[in-house]
Amino acid sequence: MHNPRLERVLAGSRLFGRLEPSALVEVTAAAAFRAYVRGEHLWSAGEPATHFTIVHSGLLKVVQTLPDGSDAIVGLFGPRESVGDTAVVERASYPAAAIVASDQAEVVRVEAAPILARMETRTDVAKAINRALLDHTHALQEKIRVMSAGAVPKRLATLLLTLAERFGDEREDGALVIPIAISRGELACLIGARVETTIRCIRLWEKAGSVETNPDGFVVKDVEAVRAATRAADDAG
Predict the structure, then answer these.
(1) Domain end: 146, 178, 201, which one?
(2) Coil, strand, or helix at residue 160?
């Protein structure tokens, strides 16, 4: 059955956005929407990777359990991005869990088997998958950049600017709108900081008028001030 909304989401995604119309129709036929709330798992480590997953709204974190039993966030994925592609292409199991980090998230799940079969006969499909794998590498590099930024304010500023660059929109006044609702606790988790320290940092920026928070996400109102925070001395760790 023709689903215009589903087709629009897939056409706007980084994974399938450059497919020929006929191929996009085939992908849409194998796809369906799924909605989740904060903390829900899309999958756990060890589950078979049977579907491509496109994020339509919200933010997902990929979490890997370390040998000492602790969890580490190894990737962040938001609107228009796909997650878990490497395991899907390799017809393997997911090496890490995918968990909703925002208040809500909606994804499109695409049955992998027919898409993988088409990779062998259609160059546009193969190229789309290869681009997605490169995006995964970029996402991992972004996470490393955030976590190695320095003191908490620098890590938080780097995270906000990274989210704005990847998923945000610029208003006419130059402010950057990040349409992803993330709790203070999740922000702290994403940058590896104490919740209290993260809250204090956000409050200082709100008081200065640099950042605004609302039920839909964040607005970086003074972009230069937040960028300056990424270059500040590490005196607030």
Answers:
(1) 146
(2) helix
Same domain, yes or no, for 122 and 186? no
Question: Which residues form the domain of 57?
Answer: 4-146
**Span 115-156, pLDDT tens digits:** 888 877 777 777 777 777 777 666 666 666 676 668 899 989
Assigned token pair, 33: 């929407």
Please tell me the predicted confidence (pLDDT) of residue 136: 66
Among 114, 129, 146, residue at a domain's last position: 146
Q: Where are the alpha helices (DSSP H) in the chain?
A: 4-11, 21-29, 85-89, 112-119, 123-147, 152-167, 184-191, 195-208, 223-230
The answer to whether residue 10 sits within a structural domain is yes
**For range 29-40, the mean pLDDT:** 95
- Write the Ramachandran bin of 217: left for phi over 0, alpha for psi from -120 to 50, otherwise beta: left
Task: Using CB atoms within 10 Å of the CB of residue 39, give its burial: 0 to 12 exposed, 13 to 18 middle, 19+ buried.
Answer: exposed
Residues with Cβ within 8 Å of residue 116, at least 6 apart in sequence:
88, 89, 91
pLDDT in tens, 224-236: 999 999 887 555 4
